[in-house]
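Narrative of accomplishments. A recurring question from our advisory board has been how the design workflow behaves on a single, concrete structure rather than in aggregate. To address it, we present the structure tokens for one chain from the evaluation set, followed by the sequence designed for it. No filtering or post-editing was applied between the two.
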């Protein structure tokens, strides 16, 4: 027979376990819910109380900006002359100092002129002699002309006198040429500067025997005012350069490292071929260089201005950042929170960036402190020092 008194205690115990488990679960859920709600409120309060990030900022401005090509240039003399001797002899005088600026026509060297003076006197004597003989021969031709007309002398004799006169005329002309050449050789004894420029190292000193056949020069002179700056640009830029050069002179600026002010010049030369090794084309700009700021052999930065873009939107270069999606800037909105804005960068000119699209004049962009910011973060702008 079934004994219900033995089963009932087990049933009650089981029922009591479920009740305890349900109560424990509800208490745990209530505690979790309470804890979650409390934590959410605390986080929101923490965000509201987060301090503003201090950043540097600047407004986007609208102004005219040059379209430039930048390169490394090398300063070259406008012209270079190697001064050499054209006559031989002892060097008796040097009339300048090394590194001195000289003018065209200034006396530089003097070679002993005595051998040339003697040679000049010899050819002048020959000229005097031959002129006297010519005068006598021409007189005979005139006298014998009447006699030959009256048949007092033979025609053969008269023709001989005329031939002698012609020979003497030729001798006189040769003597005149010899005199001019001797004078020229005497002039070559005094060597003058062929241009305005600056002398280099002295390569011959008084007492040296100068030979006209010697290939070495006495001194090298560089013309430095005006002066060239040569630089190369990629061949892709050539069509644009030719287009703007056809419209007028292209301004070129030299930027020496030791100077803060750019030196203005004008593009004057485009090479007639492209260097197939480097894929570049050689250009030259001419600079007045009156103050001798540019020096032959000097390397410097060059900026070739093709045109000027009107009303371009410009921001400081540090404001433009690069991410996985491209370039962007961080905008400071009116409520002092951050907005991340994608932009298209046209070019960079010095420490300024020209923005092609994505930004309007007057909007404020962060220039320093971007690494500490996220979209929506509050900021305060540092006052400029």
């Amino acid at each position: 027979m079934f004994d219900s008194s033995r089963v009932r205690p087990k049933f009650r115990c089981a029922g009591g376990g479920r009740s305890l488990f349900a109560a424990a679960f509800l208490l745990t859920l209530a505690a979790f819910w309470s804890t979650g709600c409390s934590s959410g409120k605390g986080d929101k309060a923490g965000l509201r109380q987060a301090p503003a990030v201090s950043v540097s900022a600047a407004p986007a401005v609208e102004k005219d900006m040059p379209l430039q090509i930048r390169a490394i240039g090398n300063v070259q003399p406008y012209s270079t002359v190697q001064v050499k001797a054209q006559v031989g002899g002892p060097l008796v005088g040097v009339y300048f100092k090394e590194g001195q600026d000289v003018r065209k026509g200034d006396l530089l060297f003097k070679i002993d002129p005595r051998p040339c003076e003697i040679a000049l006197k010899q050819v002048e004597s020959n000229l005097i002699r031959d002129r006297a003989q010519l005068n006598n021969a021409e007189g005979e031709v005139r006298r014998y002309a009447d006699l030959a007309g009256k048949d007092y002398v033979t025609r053969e004799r008269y023709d001989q006198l005329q031939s002698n006169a012609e020979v003497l005329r030729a001798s006189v002309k040769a003597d005149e040429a010899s005199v001019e050449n001797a004078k020229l050789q005497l002039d070559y004894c005094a060597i003058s500067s062929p241009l305005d420029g600056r002398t280099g190292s002295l390569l011959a000193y008084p007492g040296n025997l100068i030979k006209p056949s010697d290939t070495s020069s006495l001194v090298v002179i560089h013309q430095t005012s005006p002066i060239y700056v040569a630089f190369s640009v990629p061949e892709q830029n050539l069509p644009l350069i030719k287009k703007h050069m056809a419209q007028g002179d292209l301004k070129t600026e030299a930027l020496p490292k030791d100077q803060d002010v750019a030196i203005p010049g004008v593009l004057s030369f485009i090479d007639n071929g492209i260097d197939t090794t480097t894929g570049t084309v050689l250009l030259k700009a001419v600079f007045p260089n009156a103050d001798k700021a540019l020096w032959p052999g000097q390397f410097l930065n060059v900026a070739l201005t093709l045109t000027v873009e009107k009303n371009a939107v410009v921001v400081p270069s540090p404001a433009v950042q690069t991410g996985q999606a491209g370039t962007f800037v961080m905008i400071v909105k009116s409520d002092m929170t951050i907005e991340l804005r994608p932009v298209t960068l046209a070019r960079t000119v010095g420490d300024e960036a020209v923005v092609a699209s994505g930004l309007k004049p007057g909007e404020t962009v962060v220039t320093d402190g971007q690494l500490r910011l996220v979209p929506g973060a509050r900021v305060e702008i540092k006052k400029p020092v």
